Amino acid sequence: MEVSSQSNKDTIFFTNGTMVIGEIKKIRLGVMTFDPDDANDITVQLRKLKSIRAVSTVFRIETTEHRVYFGQLVPHSIDHFVRLIGSDTTIFHMESITDLYPYRKTFAQRFSGSVGLGFSYTRSSDFGQLNFNGKVNYLSSKDEISFSTSGIYSITDTSFSRDREDLTVIYNHYFSPKWFSTSFFSYQKNLELGLDRRYQEGLGIGNKFLTSRRVYSWVASGIVLNQEKNTENVSSGTLAEIFGQFQFNFFRFTKPEINFVLKETFYYSLSQSGRFRNDGETKLTWKIINDLDLSLTLYNNYDSKPPIADSRTFDFGIVFGLSYSF
Known about the structure:
Blueprint lengths: L9 E5 L4 E10 L2 E6 L5 E4 L3 E15 L4 E8 L5 E6 L3 E4 L3 E6 L8 E12 L4 E13 L3 E14 L3 E15 L4 E12 L4 E17 L3 E16 L4 E18 L5 E12 L6 E14 L2 E12 L10 E12 L1
Antiparallel strand pairs: 1-2, 1-5, 2-3, 2-9, 3-4, 5-6, 5-9, 6-7, 7-8, 10-11, 10-21, 11-12, 12-13, 13-14, 14-15, 15-16, 16-17, 17-18, 18-19, 19-20, 20-21
């Protein structure tokens, strides 16, 4: 099948014989976002497609074999396989595509993210707790930028307390599909551990050592600098630490559609003898309807030498919420 014999519209071919014409917005971990002509966007699992024809523009394609391609896709004679036309000509199984997006699309179309909110209240104690979280990602051919924030707040009839806050900006530059450099800035607040605020700046290197159709995982390590102030308004100056990070992601796109993320970061102090810290989060997300998810998050924080000596060394919590993805 030659590209010149077809229109410039993208086409997806289902295993049941149905054909839909429109525009491919993106493919992410086995799920395609597609804009049909004269209809709203739909999401399609790649396993339900017989083939793809994507010639509307040049696409950036990343596969489970840790390869990155730039080009267009046309159907292959074997079901569930596609042929790449571009600087490289190759054939691969559609479900091996982990990421695909129009490389020549506008800057704004490379963003994705989510925002979530939860609230609980008991009348007997006149106590309420508000939690929120948000995340925005930007992805180009070799660069990835993410912004994430979360907070937990306690509310009574006479007070409002900022119990826990996190804000992180991360920039990753990929030297190859596996190896990347990472730099980040973060802000933290945790009253349970006696921490009024911590600013943190870090540099490191990472490796995305596992990528498959349902799982990807990476590790990173480097050095961070911290500036802390405890709840008694005493500042620490600049403190240096070595960090190690691990993240595991599991996705299931058959019903129930779930997303499981485990992330743990460990810190060993170079400025304070014997100080060891750990920040972690385990999150399970269940898709209720398109773009609306129910989430359950377990967070954990440990500090062997918290900013205030008589503060707790360990903090954890469970957060329920609804989130909207875009």
